[in-house]
Design a protein that fits this description.
- This protein has 178 residues and is an all-alpha fold.
- It has six helices and no strands.
- Helix 5 runs antiparallel to helix 6.
- The chain is flat and about 65 Å long.
């Protein structure tokens, strides 16, 4: 069966990922690394995220056994996205070690604000673009994919807006103390 071969490949990739995560599995980070739409757990240990990928993989296998094809496609995509996110995180471990170093005090908040406002503008444009594409999609799968993209972009937009508020607050504080 085609599904069995694909599941076997995913299992092998998951085991490779598990071996790569193992040395870092219990290391704690300053903050959670992944979006809550991708991972339900919100911890600071990579081992917890690996456990969730394994659970998602088991759900995928169960969906295959139950012959629930819509669920299979969604679960397979989720497993792949979770594994990719963990692989990217592993690739940045050296860079992450330097995160605890103090940030220079004299950062240009106005440049940072302008940069984030540009991010906001681009995210809003991307959302509008995806929503307009959504109206013309013919298949349910295409519509669902675009809805997921819109939801992810909206999450990024919310984080961007929060960052803009923090930067504006920092500018106000700096101007008051000057």
């Amino acid at each position: 069966m085609k599904s069995a071969g694909l599941l076997q490949q995913l299992d092998m990739q998951l085991e490779q990922l598990a071996r790569a995560v193992e040395p870092h599995a219990n290391n704690r980070t300053a903050q959670a690394r992944f979006d809550i739409k991708l991972f339900h757990c919100h911890t600071t240990r990579l081992g917890d995220y690996l456990l969730e990928v394994r659970q998602t993989m088991e759900q995928l296998k169960q969906s295959v056994r139950d012959n629930r094809m819509e669920s299979v496609a969604w679960m397979a995509e989720r497993v792949v996205m979770q594994m990719s996110a963990l692989q990217r995180e592993l690739a940045t471990q050296k860079m992450r070690r330097s995160e605890s170093r103090p940030v220079p005090v004299k950062e240009n908040l106005y440049e940072k604000l302008a940069e984030h406002q540009d991010f906001e503008r681009r995210l809003r444009a991307m959302i509008i673009d995806r929503e307009s594409l959504l109206a013309v999609q013919e298949t349910l799968a295409q519509q669902q994919q675009l809805q997921r993209e819109v939801a992810a972009l909206e999450g990024r937009l919310q984080r961007c807006l929060q960052a803009i508020k923090r930067i504006e607050h920092n500018i106000e504080n700096r101007e008051r103390s000057s």
